[in-house]
Design brief:
It is a single chain. This protein is α/β, with parallel strands linked by helices and about 250 residues long. It has 2 domains: about 100 residues, Spore Coat Polysaccharide Biosynthesis Protein SpsA, Chain A, CATH 3.90.550; about 150 residues, no CATH class. Helices cover about 35% and strands about 25% of the residues. The chain has 8 helices and 9 strands. A 9-stranded mixed beta sheet has the order 1-4-3-2-5-8-7-9-6, sandwiched between helices. Helix 5 packs antiparallel against helix 7. The longest helix has 26 residues. It is globular.
Length: about 250
């Protein structure tokens, strides 16, 4: 269950930025500011707060911006469900995902929307806030956008840098992306990348469109996982692969 604080007029939007927040008071205000600087009056920022205990919802409400819509979960549901809830509550033709602790680079929204005019999914690169080292996974390359089999193989073995904070999609893909499979507890971004590749319509942007904050509380794990954890994750990805193609094929019929 959740309570919603709708702010601003009802009706469709050009772009919806969807964010899941949880105990993000240390960083979220800076991220929201960097997003709102790029939105116009026909856009919205939909935030689902996952039962924070540190005053994050109050901080969001204090911004009093008509483009912000805050939905407060009454119990913690995990970030995958929070992102799904934000996406389903969104009204924009274009849907972009955003983490609570990053900073958008000026021009990000325009570059993402330009790509989404021609592709159903877009995935961009990122730099590290403060100039620190990036994760060892290679950057996305625009020349690989159409290499669907290689992209899907890269997802399976972990060398395609599909991060939700750098991704967006068109509303027409909503019936493929949602409902997010119930067994998926992490990596909603890889699910979106599978959907885009299964639909044969994904664009990689060479440039970085955000600064990612690396810290001890990132949802994306740092370093290597235990072998059993890796194996379970790969089994889930195989299930997602079949489900993504099933949904994309069903939609085309």
């Amino acid at each position: 269950m959740s309570s919603s604080q709708p702010i601003g007029p009802a009706g469709p939007r050009r772009a919806s930025v969807c964010m899941a927040s949880y105990n993000g008071s240390a960083y979220i205000e800076e991220q929201i500011a960097s997003i709102l600087e790029q939105l116009d009056a026909s856009d919205e920022l939909v935030i689902v707060d996952d039962a924070s205990s540190d005053g994050t919802p109050g901080m969001i409400r204090s911004l009093s911006d008509p483009r912000i819509r805050l939905i407060e979960a009454t119990a913690n549901q995990g970030y995958v469900r929070s992102f799904e809830q934000a996406v389903l509550a969104s009204r924009g033709e274009y849907i972009l995902l955003a983490d609570q602790d990053d900073v958008w680079i000026p021009g990000r929204l325009a570059r993402m929307l330009d790509a989404l005019k021609y592709f159903q999914v877009v995935a961009s690169n990122f730099d590290v806030l403060g100039g620190g080292p990036r994760p060892s996974i290679p950057r996305l390359r625009s020349e690989d956008s159409s290499h669907r089999a290689a992209n899907l193989l890269g997802i399976m073995v972990g060398y395609r840098a599909y991060y939700g904070c750098g991704m967006g999609f068109r509303r027409e893909l909503l019936d493929v992306f949602t409902p997010v499979p119930a067994y998926l507890r992490e990596s909603h971004d890889l699910w979106l990348a599978i959907c885009g590749n299964a639909a044969g319509s994904i664009a990689h942007l060479d440039e970085s469109t955000l600064l990612r904050r690396i810290h001890g509380e990132n949802a994306t794990p740092q370093g290597w996982r235990a072998p059993a954890t890796i194996l379970r994750a790969r089994v889930v990805l195989v299930r997602l692969l079949f489900e993504g193609f099933r949904r994309a094929t069903t939609r085309r019929k």
